[in-house]
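Fold it.
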Amino acid sequence: MQPQAKSISISQDRLAAAPRLMWLALVTTVMVLAQALVAQARPESLAPLAQKISPAVVNITTTTVIEGRTGPQGIVPEGSPFEDFFREFQDRNGEGNGEGESRRPRRSSALGSGFVISEDGYIVTNNHVIADADEIEIEFFPGDGQPKELLPAKVIGTDEKTDIALLKVEAEMPLAFVSFGDSDSALVGDWVVAMGNPLGQGFSVSAGIVSARNRELSGSYDDYIQTDAAINRGNSGGPLFNMDGEVVGVNTAILSPNGGSIGIGFSMASNVVTKVVDQLKEFGETRRGWLGVRIQDVDEDLADAIGLASAAGALITDVPDGPAKEAGMLAGDVILTFDGVEVEDTRALVRQVGATQVGKAVRVVVHREGGTETLLVTLGRREDAERSAGLTPPKEDAAPEAAEKELLGLTIGTLTDEMRGELSVPEGSDGVVILSVDEASEAWEKGLRGGDIITEAGQQKVTALDDFEDRIAEAKEAGRKSLLLLVRRGGQPRFVALNLGD
């Protein structure tokens, strides 16, 4: 009889556990259904998003008339054995008169991208896309309600520091447009979509993720979003969208050893672009705040010597004539807060001052001789200060520098007015020109070629051969193993890092 009683006892336990099992089964079913619903909510394709935003993306064609110049076209040093070859080649093609002189002006065209930000025809692109163009034409994405013909555009304003330009077209109908999003909300790992006209192939879409944030490449006001969405030549000025169809960046540059996309692209953050666009629309130019100090970052050693609790703030090294001097700032002061915001480093201070309204009186807290002081500073305008500084005459006793130098496998030379025309370099652009590249060097392997223009080295502008040599020496003294170059070819920028060797 005991086995039968035992069997009855087990059955009773199972009956007691049945409600719990049913509850677990119900919970499991609900979770499976919830996961299925989430999966269904996720878009299986980016096509709906592309269809929504593409009508606001445009192709930009620029035309520049280049005056005829004397001398064989191309980067050929005077007296080179190839000089006669290039002259003969030009003569055969009707480009010269037999004496190396160009017969007539020629037209140079370039392609880029942009996007419409208002129904009345305002368009954002990169400054380098339209720099010094004589004619600018806008091609709209093909579709219903879009202009069928190319529309001429006029330049409303440009900003070289952020490489942003604002254009305007007149259309017979309201234009499709897109809105800016909050670039600060774009997180590393978020999906993004780039659109534009890569390599002149027409409208194109590429997708990727935000690879990094707050990249600083070549300017004081830089705030680049790094992405692996494919960006190539011709994509410059095009938009970088988030998954809500909002513009979070303007595609500007790539890091590449060969000029093509390797998954390292940079888009100027929309929160920087919107401030610039608003000023260009209102004034036709930027109006950035100016404090008038020379500063450097505070490291641990400086903080300890000065008596600061942490390595933060901006140490003033010089106070020339300007708003800061009038307010009583001194060399050796450390700026701790500006207009109520703590200053992390020099970069943060420069960006915050630049974004502050010209003429505004702001409170600045500085560390001085072991204590703090609050000063009231009325900001000037940076553009006015830069123009005044540009009026300073050059030193008359400056010795002429060498015409060529060989550095890092490159033979570089001074960028002359004649070369500017031959290479379609915009007026006002500074740099040094690569005359030739050692084919056994790393520079050759990374795609550098004769005719490329080096505008920056070590994130500092290069205007002369001595500047380039100084940047190399500074990088070596700082213990860096490579030097970052900003190189332009046909107006398109890219970054190349060259090893400094031993």
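Residues 11 and 17 are 10 Å apart (CA to CA).
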